[in-house]
Amino acid sequence: MIRVRLAGVLLAVCCLLALAVSAFAHHGFGVEFDGSKCMDLKGTLSGLTWENPHAYLQMEVTDASGKTVSWHLEMITPNGLKRNGTTRQDFEENMGKLMNARACPAKIGGDSRGAAEYIKLADGILRIVGQLPERDITPDKLNF
Amino acid sequence: MAGIKQQLAYCAGTAAVVAALFAQNSSAQGAKPPVKIAGDFDKVHVLEPGGPAPRTADGHPDLSGRYYPNHAGRMLQGAYRIDRTIMRQFDPVATPQEDPVFKTDVADKYLHPTPYGSCPPGGTPTSITTQATEHGPMELIQVPGRLWILSEFPQTIRMIPTDGRPHTKDPDYTFNGESVAHWEGDTLVVDTIHIDTRMRNISVGKTGDANAWLHSEKEHVIERFSRPSKNYVMYQITVEDPEVLVKPFTSAPHAWTLAQDPKDVWTEYICTSNEDPEFWKNVDEKTKEEYEKSGRGK
């Protein structure tokens, strides 16, 4: 139990330090997207906009009531995605297939606009494709 | 202050070790195993010096190469939780950097965050300094008598005479300004004046678009480039602007590392997404309000 508490305290220190990393946020993500309302989405990859200064993916998500919402999720730049292991071809090869995303809704610009943090396409590879408005999110906390 | 930062760094290191041990223990008890993430980030490390810097026929260090604003020799993203000693360009304990000191009455005119989602034009020194938030590499091409500096984003080309010539009389105001350069030992000193006042200083001092600031026609930028070893270029700036700053701002020497992946090629980065001006206009206004409420990204 002591070990658990110690790890918790020290991890909290890490989280505080991670906040300092917010200075590196591209275009002020924390201002633009609501890091307190992030959610796990499961749906179908339906589109990709591969452009600057940000790439976007489109996914169709059906909620418990049967209503389908088309989410428009912002990612980082194509040059950053490519150099960090995610290409346009990765999306195209998985188009129309099921995918998961951890996304945070935009504070403005529409209810189904958001920022993608982590995604897992149908190829099963976990990818970080955006900045992280949700500062304490780590892969082990994802429900996919 | 430095002592506190050092203690925090030690705490973070200790926390990371303990967290790793805890994670291993948890894994053994049936928790989720470590997750593999695309991008080979488990292989990222502080790049070694790599031997002496190459030199040109005239004996000066050859600055040529593609460099990234970190210690890894590759493009990174802050979101990947990379160790700060790899991500950062300088050690704030060993080489502290004071923030720019602005005059008290300049906030409305000069202290403006970069509008969200916009692609501001590059210029001196932003096309280099804005890379602190990992927009892309800096490519240096040194040929006899001149240095070319290429930036992917903001897509910028600078041609700088390195023969020690003086500034011309009353040069045009441009985003890059007029640059001339001379060697002081193994350091190339680039002197720039007449920078277009629409050019925002981004990551000049505090990093990030939220801390951007404009400047007057009197802004004078001095950049110092050196290559202490094959894998490292050091870059330091001094910005003088008597209209905006209480005193000149001088950065710490910032490390850039040579691209290590031979498949890493130049990427076109032309912004094309601002196709709905009304949408972006609204976003910008809202963003400005949010920034102001948030205390300019503090």
Describe the structure.
- Chain A has a single domain (27-141), classed as Beta Barrel (OB fold (Dihydrolipoamide Acetyltransferase, E2P)).
- By secondary structure, chain A is α+β, with helices and mostly antiparallel strands.
- Chain A is built from four helices and six strands, in the order H-H-E-E-E-H-H-E-E-E.
- The longest helix of chain A has 19 residues, at 2-20.
- By secondary structure, chain B is α+β, with helices and mostly antiparallel strands.
- In chain B, 19% of the residues lie in helices and 21% in strands.
- In chain B, strands 1, 2, 3, 4, 5, 6, 7, 8, 9 and 10 form a ten-stranded antiparallel beta sheet that branches.
- Chain B starts with a helix and ends in a 5-residue tail after the last helix.
- The interface between A and B is large, with 48 and 63 residues.
Strand order of the largest sheet of chain A: 1-2-3-5-4
Strand proportion of chain B, as a percent range, falls in 15-25%
Helix content of chain A: 10-25%
Distance between the termini of chain A: 28 Å
Order of helix and strand elements from N to C terminus of chain B: HEHHHEEEEEEEEEH
CATH topology of chain A: OB fold (Dihydrolipoamide Acetyltransferase, E2P)
Biggest beta sheet summary of chain B? 10 strands, antiparallel
Using a beta-carbon cutoff below 8 angstroms, give the protein chain pair with the largest interface and the number of residues from each chain: A-B, 48 and 63 residues
Stretches of chain B where pLDDT is under 50 for at least 5 consecutive residues are 1-30
Taking all residues together, what is the mean pLDDT of chain B? Answer: 84
- Termini distance of chain B? 17 Å
Give the rounded overall mean pLDDT of chain A.
Answer: 80
User: What's the alpha carbon Rg of chain A, rounded to whole Å?
Assistant: 16 Å
CATH class of chain A: Mainly Beta
Enumerate how many helices of chain A there are, as a single number.
4
Count of DSSP H/I helices of chain B: 5
* Residues in helices of chain B, as a percent range: 10-25%
- Given helix and strand content, the structural type of chain A is alpha+beta
